[in-house]
Structure formats: structure tokens, C-alpha cells
């Protein structure tokens, strides 16, 4: 493992520390061609060739891929005050997310985060449980026995419906089409499989014009809703609101957000919380389809509920939780995110200047065989075998390091430290409730065993994620004393 001595341990930031080896990219372009061809493969190869701190260049921007979990912890937790999100995400997302939570820095970020915290407390997130279950039932309503469905498409529709309702409450009925059109345009705009997504937003391509028009419509609709809610008397405090927009309005009334930031944050939730969850659910369902034994074990857990699953019930399902956590390990929806040191720092024994890009990649670290046995295999049992009782084991596979034996930041699908994903509890509950609801109704069979993924803003599938549906009649049923039997 590489040196992980901390900045404070190094006195004056280790003035004698070496610089990481130079990149091997082309003049002017740097390593852009390799990144554009296949960023996931590029990051993995670079880490394998260059170790814990791997230099690469994006045009003239110095970038350092960090793959040592202890160094990642220092950036995100111990020394987070020495880093900002920096220019790169702002250049890409600034026009969309403005000064919302995702991009805000310093005091503005802290005030916003404090004001919004209560919207993600457990009791509040539990209240979204019914919508999470109902929309999962709706997603499966048209599925017939033997159908081959694209679970990515279904999960995208699902996550959109859940987030839109959680954001706007009953008002979504009125604004659904405006929000849906804006969400689709945002996804299209940041889809790096389309060459036009590399063009700056001010170039009037049809996609850019559509994007701008729909985003303006979304912002206008949110402004109207905010005005109506203010007129009706906003909730007294952010924690008592019925939906996320109510939290934002209450936070603005308390002075924690100005009006532009309020709208920026509504857009931020839509952007940050819908595609990521959709990807997590797609990959969970696909992975379970490739592991019928694990799927049966999870179904046994969730078939035991008397009625539709509740947030508290699914929290208490070790095999279901392991199935989701393992999908987020193998296919982290956010493959890489970035920080910028505001002063020179020492990481992995190397001196890193201020103002460069430090890249943190769950994709690379989650597939590092120092921490993960058979890293490229979907094995939820790795999350269970450290259990002393053994009751919760799935299968007999107990090889590889147990959870407690790995460094904490060998697994960080939701980031870490003060800026970890504020929607983490919401997302994990959503993934568990949707998976539980679906497995109580259908059995999933893989059509394509392997997934081909592409790095876009997130880790997207290269094509449809196809799964064959089998209705459970005569196999496993739910809600009464019928239990999983035999090979599903
Ligand atoms: C499986 C689903 C999700 C994944 C994998 C995910 C992942 C992440 C990651 C890695 C970060 C940290 C980025 C960084 O430090 O630069 C983040 C931040 C964030 N996420 Fe999520 N996210 C998910 C779902 C959600 C949901 C459902 C919401 C909202 C309802 C949300 C809202 C946010 C926001 C606002 C931030 C910025 C937080 C801050 O800077 O204080 N995310 N997410």
C-alpha cells in the first residue's frame, strides 16, 4: 500500500516529497483521447500501471487519480478543509445546478447543508416509503409472464416518479410533464455517448436549445410553486415540511437560502437523485437475475412480510441489503468524482500542487483485488460472511476479506466526509423497497449475463439491460404462509 502519512504529519507539506511521474498523453490533448474512448478502462489501467497516485492530463489540466483508501479518507474526511469541489464540476454543471448544494462551497455550502439535513432524517425518509412501493408496483403492472423488459428504462421511469413526487408532493400532478421533459433533456445533455454533449451549451444545437428551453420551463414552474406555497403560509421549519420543496421554502424563509439558491436546489435534487438511483436499481435487478440462488434467498426474506414492505422491514433484511450494497460496489453509479486542493498537499508520498484535479474513483477502488476477492464477480455473500452467527449467509462462499478487515474507504459509492451524498438514506431505502416489491411479484432471469457499461456523467449501461420476467404464480408467492420453494 502506498504511503498515507497525513498533511499534518508531514510538517510543511513534505517539501522534499517527489512529484508523481509525468503523464504520457499527447501535447495539448493530454490523455483526453483515452478517456473519451473508455474512461472506466482508462482509470483502471492507469491505477494498475501507476499505483496509488496516478497522474494524467485533460487538455492542460493536471489530474491525479487517487486509489489508496487511506489517502481518499484524508481528502474526504481528515483534511477536507484543504479541498474544494473546484472549477471542473462548476464548468460542466454550473449552468444547471447554480449555487445549489452540489456545487456550493464554504459557508454557503455549510448553511445550505445544515438547513436541508432534516429532510433526510430517517423519520422523514420513511414517509416516502409508500411512494417508493407504489411506483415499484406501477412499474411492474404491465409486465407479463415471459416478457423481456429493459430494467434500465423501467428503473429510470421509477426513480423519476419517486423523486418528482418526493420533491413536489401533490403538485407533481400539475407539473409532471414540465419536470419530465427537463429531466430527459438534462440526461441527454450529459450523455457522453452523444458527440453533441461535448459542445458548449451556448452553441445553438437543437439539443442545446431544447435543453435550455425545458430547463427555463422547469425553473419557471418551480418559481410559481414557491410563490403559491409562500402565499399559503410555508411550513414553520424545514423538518416539518411534507416534501423536499417544502423543506427548501422553509429554509429560505429562515434565511438559509436566497430565492435563486432555492430553485438551484430543486434542480440539484432532480439531477443528483434520479439518474443515480435508477442506475443503482437497474444494476441490482440485473445482478440478481444473474444469481438465481441469491435472488431466491432475498425473495425468501421479503416474501415473509404480511403486506407490502415498509422501510423498517427492509432495513432488517440482511440478504436484500447485501444484494443492493454489492451492486453498488460492482457498478457504482457515480464512477468518479473530483476535488481541488486549495494549497499544496502530500498524498501517497507525492507532492500535489494547489489548483489541480484530484480524482476519486469508486469504480477503481471497488474493483481493487487488495480489498475484494474476485472483484469483478457479483457476490453479495461477501457482505454477510463475517456475521458471527452465520444465519444470514447466502451460499457457502466465505472467501475474501470480511467487511471489518477492509479499509473504510475501500467502499464509498456515496462519497464520504461532510460532503457525502445527502440522499444516501433515501437512495438505499428506495433501492431496497423497489427490489423487495418487485421480487415479491416476479422472478428475474438474465437475458445477457454481462453488462457493458460506459462512463458518462454517471456509469451508464451501453444498451438496454434486458431481463426476462416470470410471474410467481405457482412458484413463490407473497403475503401469506406460502414460501419460496425449489429452484426458481
Ligand atoms: C444510488 C444513488 C446515489 C448515488 C450512488 C449517489 C452518489 C453521490 C456521491 C458519490 C456524492 C458525492 C459527490 C462528491 O463528493 O463530489 C453525492 C452527493 C450528493 N447527492 Fe447523491 N447519490 C445517490 C442518490 C441521491 C439522491 C436520491 C439524492 C437526493 C434526493 C442525492 C443528492 C445528492 C446531493 C444534493 C449531493 C451533494 C451533497 C453535498 O455536496 O453536500 N443523491 N451523491
Mean pLDDT: 87
Largest beta-sheet details: 5 strands, mixed
Radius of gyration, taken over Cα atoms and rounded to an integer in Å: 23 Å
Measure the end-to-end span. Answer: 43 Å
Low-confidence stretches: 1-15, 387-397, 479-488
- What is the topology, as strand order, of the major beta sheet? 1-2-8-5-3
Helical amount among residues, as a percent range?
A: 40-55%
Shape: globular
Strand content: 5-15%
Q: Work out the helix count.
A: 16
Strand segment count: 12
Oligomer description = single chain
- Determine the structural class based on helices, strands and strand pairing: alpha+beta
SSE sequence, one letter per element: HEEHEHHHHEHHHHHHHHEEEEHHEEEE
List the helices and strands and how they pair.
Blueprint: H1 32-50, E1 53-58, E2 61-66, H2 69-78, E3 83-84, H3 87-97, H4 106-116, H5 122-127, H6 129-140, E4 148-150, H7 151-168, H8 172-189, H9 206-232, H10 244-253, H11 259-290, H12 292-303, H13 311-315, H14 318-330, E5 337-341, E6 345-347, E7 350-352, E8 357-360, H15 362-365, H16 424-439, E9 442-446, E10 453-455, E11 459-461, E12 466-471
Parallel strand pairs: 2-8
Antiparallel strand pairs: 1-2, 3-5, 4-12, 5-8, 6-7, 9-12, 10-11
Protoporphyrin IX containing FE (HEM) is lined by residues 101-102, 113, 268-269, 272-273, 276-277, 280, 333-334, 337, 413-415, 419, 421-423, 426-427.
Structural notes for this entry:
Helix content is 46%, strand content 10%. It has 16 helices and 12 strands. The chain has helices at residues 32-50, 69-78, 87-97, 106-116, 122-127, 129-140, 151-168, 172-189, 206-232, 244-253, 259-290, 292-303, 311-315, 318-330, 362-365, 424-439; strands at 53-58, 61-66, 83-84, 148-150, 337-341, 345-347, 350-352, 357-360, 442-446, 453-455, 459-461, 466-471. The strands form 4 sheets. The protein has a 5-stranded mixed beta sheet. Strands 4-12-9 form a 3-stranded antiparallel beta sheet. It has a two-stranded antiparallel ribbon with strand order 6-7. The longest helix is centred in the middle third of the chain and has 32 residues, at 259-290. The model is unreliable at 1-15, 387-397 and 479-488 (pLDDT under 50). The structure holds protoporphyrin IX containing FE. The site of protoporphyrin IX containing FE has 22 residues, from α11 and α16. Protoporphyrin IX containing FE binds next to α11 and α16.
Amino acid at each position: 500500500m502506498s504511503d498515507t502519512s497525513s498533511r499534518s504529519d508531514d510538517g510543511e507539506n513534505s517539501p522534499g516529497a517527489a512529484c508523481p511521474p509525468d503523464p504520457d498523453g499527447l501535447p495539448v490533448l493530454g490523455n483526453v483521447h483515452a478517456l473519451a474512448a473508455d474512461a472506466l478502462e482508462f482509470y483502471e489501467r492507469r491505477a494498475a500501471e501507476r499505483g496509488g497516485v496516478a497522474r494524467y492530463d485533460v487538455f492542460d489540466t493536471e489530474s491525479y487519480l487517487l486509489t489508496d483508501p487511506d489517502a481518499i479518507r484524508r481528502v474526504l474526511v481528515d483534511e477536507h478543509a484543504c479541498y474544494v469541489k473546484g472549477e471542473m464540476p462548476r464548468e460542466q454543471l454550473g449552468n444547471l445546478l447554480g449555487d445549489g448544494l452540489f456545487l456550493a462551497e464554504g459557508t454557503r455550502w455549510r448553511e445550505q447543508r445544515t438547513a436541508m439535513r432534516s429532510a433526510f432524517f430517517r423519520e422523514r425518509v420513511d414517509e416516502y416509503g409508500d411512494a417508493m412501493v407504489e411506483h415499484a408496483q406501477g412499474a411492474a403492472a404491465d409486465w407479463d409472464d415471459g416478457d423481456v423488459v429493459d430494467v434500465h428504462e423501467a428503473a429510470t421511469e421509477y426513480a423519476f416518479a419517486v423523486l418528482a413526487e418526493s420533491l413536489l408532493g401533490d403538485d407533481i400532478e400539475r407539473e409532471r410533464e414540465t419536470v419530465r421533459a427537463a429531466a430527459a433533456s438534462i440526461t441527454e445533455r450529459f450523455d457522453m455517448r452523444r458527440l453533441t454533449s461535448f459542445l458548449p451549451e451556448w452553441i445553438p444545437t437543437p439539443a442545446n436549445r431544447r435543453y435550455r428551453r425545458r430547463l427555463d420551463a422547469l425553473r419557471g414552474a418551480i418559481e410559481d410553486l414557491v410563490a403559491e406555497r409562500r402565499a399559503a403560509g410555508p411550513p414553520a421549519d424545514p423538518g416539518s415540511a411534507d416534501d423536499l420543496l417544502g423543506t427548501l421554502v422553509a429554509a429560505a424563509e429562515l434565511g438559509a437560502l436566497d430565492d435563486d439558491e432555492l430553485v438551484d436546489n430543486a434542480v440539484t435534487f432532480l439531477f443528483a437523485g434520479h439518474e443515480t438511483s435508477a442506475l443503482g436499481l437497474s444494476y441490482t435487478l440485473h445482478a440478481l437475475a444473474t444469481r438465481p440462488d441469491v435472488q431466491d434467498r432475498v425473495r425468501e426474506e421479503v416474501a415473509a412480510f404480511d403486506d407490502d414492505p415498509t422501510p423498517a422491514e427492509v432495513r432488517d433484511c440482511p440478504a436484500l441489503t447485501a444484494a443492493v450494497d454489492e451492486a453498488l460496489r460492482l457498478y457504482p453509479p457515480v464512477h468518479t468524482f473530483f476535488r481541488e486542493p486549495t494549497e499544496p498537499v502530500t498524498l501517497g508520498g507525492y507532492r500535489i500542487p494547489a489548483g489541480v484535479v484530484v480524482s476519486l474513483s469508486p469504480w477503481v477502488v471497488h474493483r481493487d483485488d487488495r480489498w475484494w476477492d474476485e472483484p469483478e464477480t457479483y457476490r453479495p455473500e461477501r457482505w454477510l460472511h463475517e456475521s458471527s452467527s452465520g444465519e444470514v449467509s447466502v451460499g457457502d462462499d466465505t472467501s475474501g476479506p470480511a467487511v471489518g478487515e477492509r479499509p473504510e474507504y475501500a467502499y464509498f459509492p456515496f462519497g464520504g466526509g461532510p460532503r457525502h451524498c445527502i440522499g444516501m438514506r433515501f437512495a438505499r431505502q428506495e433501492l431496497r423497497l423497489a427490489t423487495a416489491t418487485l421480487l415479491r411479484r416476479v422472478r428475474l432471469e438474465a437475458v445477457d449475463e454481462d453488462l457493458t457499461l460506459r462512463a458518462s456523467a454517471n456509469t451508464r449501461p451501453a444498451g438496454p439491460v434486458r431481463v426476462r420476467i416470470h410471474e410467481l404464480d405457482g412458484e413463490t408467492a407473497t403475503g401469506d404462509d406460502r414460501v419460496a420453494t425449489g429452484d426458481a
